Amino acid sequence: MKMKKCISCKKEKDLSNFSKSKNNKDGLKTYCKKCASEQNKKYREKNRSNINKKKRQEYHISKINKEERTEQEIKNGGKVCTVCNSYKDIDSFYKRGNGGFYNYCKKCALKSQKRYTLKNRSKINNRKREYYKNNKKKFSDYYHEYNKNNKEYNRQKAKKWAESNKERYRENQKLYAHKRRVLLKNVKHDFNKEEWKKCQEFFSDEKGKYCAYCGKHTENITLDHVIPVIKNGSHTKENILPSCSNCNSQKSSTDFLKWYKGTDFYCYEKLEKINNYFDKMI
Fold first, then answer.
1. Global model pTM greater than 0.85
2. What share of the chain is helix, strand, coil (3-state, %, to 5)?
3. Which of 38, 54, 56, 71 has a CA between 20 and 30 Å from the CA of residue 2?
4. Residues in contact with 176: Cβ distance below 8 Å, sequence separation at least 6, in sequence order
5. pLDDT tens figures, 55-91
6. Rounded to a whole number, what is the largest CA-CA distance in the chain?
């Protein structure tokens, strides 16, 4: 096995640890790949602002010919991936923001991304947690709007998952029920069957029981805590309303007024009736 001494770390290493170079007689660089990588990192850290400035200038200049470069590569029909060294159709490469296509194919890009994710999982998760922490409202508004516009899709998706994962679904339901019992132990809970009956009667008409929020008539009325138990809401007549399962699920642990006023079925008369009911209960 042929060896070579690195001029930087002074260690004898196998030739495979040295990059190629046309300037040297043996066709290899005088320093090993590891030392080169460390030196490059130090240089980038020391000159980060200048490097970024240069990259921005190059990117701006290259954008001028963006369409021409892209059209030329599409016309060529394909190219060789610099990672797997295979000739592939141009559709197998991702487009670059400043025109043209990347030199590595989509398949190699995904493999590289997976390797990076596995190697830096904790770093990525910490970054995501930090971003979520600083943008909670942005996430909350986005998911609220998404769920509002995809009600049926989400319902069908959840139903399909429950049918395909019956054991896990039952286990999750048990854990949820246990968590609820623990939470109820820590708050005031004196709500009884008679009070629940009166509550349903208040929100009933000649057609039968209806949801206090949306007004939908249904026999499958559920019990909803106006102030969620998870936010220390009591299990008492002053904090309980009859709700359809859809409204109960949508409201979840959000603030009642914020959620209700953002719904399509918000109605001042319904809100007044809810307030009248609680006034009567006090």
1. no
2. 60, 15, 25
3. 38
4. none
5. 888 878 777 788 888 899 999 999 999 999 999 999 9
6. 98
Sign of the dihedral defined by the CA atoms of residues 282, 230, 226, 196, in that order: negative
The two beta strands, 208-209 and 204-205, are: antiparallel
Is 18 in contact with 4 (CB distance < 8 Å)? yes
DSSP symbols for 94-154: EEPTTSSEEEEEHHHHHHHHHHHHHHTHHHHHHHHHHHHHHTHHHHHHHHHHHHHH-HHHH
Tell me the per-residue pLDDT of 241-261, one tens digit each, with 9 for 90 and over.
Answer: 999 988 988 888 888 888 898
pLDDT-based confidence at residue 190 (cuts at 50, 70, 90) = confident
Residue 263 tokens read as 């719904």
Look at residue 172 and tell me if it is in a domain: no
Mean pLDDT over each residue of the chain, to the nearest integer: 89
Q: Are strands 87-89 and 78-80 parallel, antiparallel or unpaired?
A: antiparallel
Neighbours of 131 (CB within 10 A): 11
Nearest-10 crossing angle of helices 268-281, 193-202: 150
Three-state secondary-structure class, residue 222: strand
Percent of the chain clearing pLDDT 90 (strictly above) = 47
Same structural domain, 256 and 211: yes
What local confidence, expressed as pLDDT, does residue 106 receive?
Answer: 95
Total count of domains within the chain: 4
Structural domain of 12: 3-46
Query: Which amino acid is it at 90?
Result: I
* Size of the chain in residues: 282
Within 8 A by CB and 6+ apart from 126, the residues are none
Which two three-digit tokens encode residue 38?
Answer: 């460390």
